[in-house]
Amino acid sequence: MRKRLLATVLCLTATATGCGATVESSPDATSPAVTLTNCGREVTYDKVPERVVTNDVGITELMFALDLEDRMAGFAMPDDKGDLRGVPWKDGYDKVTWLSKDQLTKENVLDARADLVLAGWNYGFREDSGFTPDALEELGIPSYVLTESCRNGRSKTARGIMPPLDALYTDLTNLGRLFGVEQRAATLIAGFRETIADVRAKAPAGADRPSVFLYDSGQDTPFTSGRYAAPEQIITEAGGVNVMHDVADSWTTVGWESVVRRDPDVIVICDYGDVSAEQKEQFLLSYAPLRGVSAVRHRRIISLDYADLVESPRNPSAIARLGAYLRGVPGDPR
């Protein structure tokens, strides 16, 4: 039921190809060079890419939402990211080659004869594997870094340079310019803004806003979202308050003691991986240090898919569904 709702909401909000929108003509591969600002620096692309390779589900669906699957040579992602058959861009998954069920490698990219790699830090790009934009540049292959994952300069690994939805809109706008589908990108963004504004208008205000903890994974220490990952604005626009808003990072690890101290009213589980959402919920409900936390005492726990919670065109529908849930949480439930 949840998958069918996802498809319905996205088709209503994203007036892209497949949902009844006007299709722009294909961009000309001989078009002049395009210069974009990516992660705070200007990057010039000499031509419109024709063999794009993407890493992970959210990044891949940015291309599909812009109806650019014909410009793709393949994608890499684990097969633990949910049922892909019910998404509005199912045709994209049917058309484009699934190169790897692991992270992208130089070998994947070279074998695919890629002329652009679209990935992000910790979404494919990693120094420890030697798969970085600089390494690809040495091979003559340009890259574009997912804005949610841009490093923010506070440390060698901290990520995030702008509010998460701004990151989504920035990437759609940039890709629209690069591929000559600016109107398609603008239409998507307008639809997303409309959906989110509607949720915001219904959201509780002030002290009635429930506090929310995003639980990704981990038992010894929880992996969660600071203020620069998508859950920050998904929670905020839905009518909640991210209890980890003060963490100046995107996806990161915190201590359980900080969760207990902040006493969230609601916990959102990120559903993916070998550990199911049901198993994660059972852990949270049975973990002794969380026994007094409001969300655990009242069993206010909701699951959203991984692709809902990373930067992706699914973010607006996730806001709508979380907003509906949070409106059912009593004010000042303690």
From TrEMBL:
Q: PROSITE patterns attached here? A: FE_B12_PBP, PROKAR_LIPOPROTEIN
Pfam entry (one)? Peripla_BP_2
Please state the span of the N-terminal signal peptide per the UniProt entry.
1-21
Domain named Fe/B12 periplasmic-binding is located at 51-333
Q: Which UniProt keywords apply?
A: Signal
Superkingdom as given in the UniProt entry = Bacteria
**SUPFAM superfamilies for the chain:** Helical backbone' metal receptor
Does the keyword Glycosyltransferase feature in the UniProt annotation? no
In the record, the note on similarity to other proteins reads: Belongs to the bacterial solute-binding protein 8 family.
What name appears for this protein in its UniProt entry?
Iron transporter
Species in which this protein is naturally found: Streptomyces longwoodensis
